[in-house]
């Protein structure tokens, strides 16, 4: 007979009673586990282990599925903003009582009755419908970069026009969602922009034209990392490159200021090799 603790770990601590019985655990054993405190009832037909993931427990309790940016964040994808839990439910079923954003769309990948989290394909399709273009593009590129799904697999799904646009535009060269957003906001300039370019033996976030380097600082650019970045900036400038270094909050809260600096640099031909 399978060990109940191992089975519950395989189900991430939350499971349907009928599934546990199907996997070899008797009703008597399950009732005893509940009586002993090894399992807790969530709602009729569902149980969890003490201390189970609260998001999974809530999904099971409400009869919903974690999806969109909530599940994207749980999968380790780059998410710009998640102001509330995003869940999905059967479009033909009853409305669950939840505190968050409820998605009703019919998913491209059918959900198993036991599912309380959406597969990556459903997550990306709902992100495309729910999020602004650049935020959605950042999630899509993050998923492709991590190898969570392939472009070919996505192309075979019945995608909306916007989702197909995201699929066309998505690249795996950006190192983070922040770089995705910057690249998307600068493409109108009409100059060559190379993300993650190798320059003088180091990788830079963006090389605009031949000589303009744009570096984006995230939360790790402190201490030794900051010192190394400063040294690389100095080496680049000694070799005739121009470096613009910007931070996360500048991109998110002061894009107009960032864009103004870059546009002025291009206007002054700082992106061109000296004649």
Plain-language structure description:
By secondary structure, this protein is of the alpha+beta class. It folds into 3 domains: 4-52; 61-169, no CATH class; 177-267, VSR Endonuclease (Endonuclease, Chain A, 3-Layer(aba) Sandwich), CATH 3.40.960. 45% of the residues lie in helices and 16% in strands. The chain is built from 13 helices and 10 strands. The strands form 3 sheets. It has a 4-stranded mixed β-sheet, sandwiched between helices. Strands 1-3-2 form a 3-stranded antiparallel β-sheet. Helix 11 links the parallel strand 9 and strand 10. Helix 6 runs antiparallel to helix 7 (133-146). The longest helix has 16 residues, at 223-238. The protein is elongated, with a radius of gyration of 24 Å. The termini are far apart. Residues 161-266 form the DUF559 domain. InterPro entries: DUF559, Restrct_endonuc-II-like. This is DUF559 domain-containing protein.
